[in-house]
Each structure stands twice: as structure tokens, then as C-alpha cells.
């Protein structure tokens, strides 16, 4: 029995000493792995920083380009102008006006980049409010004619401006809608 006890104690001491050695080895191995992980992590963080800086620079370039494009989205250049004349106190298109507008329609159908601005005017005869309404009706007559000929409404910009009070302009020249062909700026 005494021999068994000694055997048991020796086995127990052996296991404890092996456990201590194993614990030390585990600590060393863990420390070694952590050091390698920290080094790799440091490199990864540095690489991420470079990638982030590069992405930030590219984003700034794109932002500047988009800002430039957005600020010029409505920039247009004048191409040609035609005056459509009206009779006194009238807003209907006569044959001459329709013929002039058909030339504009052909231009708009040929070049999809063109848009048209319509500005309606009257002579100063009569009350201002009436003349403003008449200018709107004249612009609407031209807009409606262009739309009936197949010009898309988003390509037509229209406004009735009312009476012109210029002294050097004949009254017949004041009763008009100015049709301006415009193209988007590059």
C-alpha cells in the first residue's frame, strides 16, 4: 500500500510539473502569436489609412466635378431668334406666324439638344393687367402650336412679359412673341 501511495504521489508530481511546463509553453506561444497579430494589425491599419486617403482624394475630385456640372446644368447659349407678330388685341396665329414657327419646329426636330424660350409682349395701349393677360395668351398660342407639331413640352420655356414702352419701336413691332432657340452649354 505504501508503494501505491508513492506511485500515486509520483504520478501526481509528474502531472503537476507537466502542467506547469505546459502552462509556460502556452503563455510563450500566446505572447508570440499576439506579437505577430499586433504587427500584422499595425500594417493593416497603415494600409487602411492609405486606402482611406486615396478614396478621400478621389471623392473630392468627383465632388468638384459634380458641383461644376450641377452649377452649369441650366447654362444655355443663344442660337437664333424669331419674332412672331400679332394683330392689335389678338392672340391667334396667322398664316405668316405659323410658317415662321414651322421653321423653328424643323430645327427643334433636327437637333434634340435645342430648347425654345418664348417671351410675349404687347404694345402699351390699354390697361396693364389686360396687356399682361394678352401677352400670356399670345405665348400660350405659340406654345400650343409647337406642342401640336410634336415639340415636347419640357423643351418649351414660356413667359408673358406684358407691354413694351420703348419710344423708338413701332406699335406693330411691340405686339409679338420672341422665340429664342437655345442650346445647352458644354
Task: Write a brief structural summary.
Helix content is 60%, strand content 19%. The protein has four helices and four strands.
What does it look like?
The N and C termini lie far apart (105 Å). This protein has a 4-stranded mixed β-sheet with strand order 1-4-2-3. It has helices spanning 2-71, 95-110, 128-148, 171-174; strands at residues 76-85, 114-122, 156-163, 176-184. The mean pLDDT is 82. It folds into 2 domains: 1-73; 76-184, OmpA-like domain (60s Ribosomal Protein L30, Chain: A). By secondary structure, it is an alpha+beta fold. Helices cover 60% and strands 19% of the residues. The longest helix is centred in the first third of the chain and has 70 residues, at 2-71. The radius of gyration is 42 Å and the shape is rod-shaped. It contains 4 helices and 4 strands.
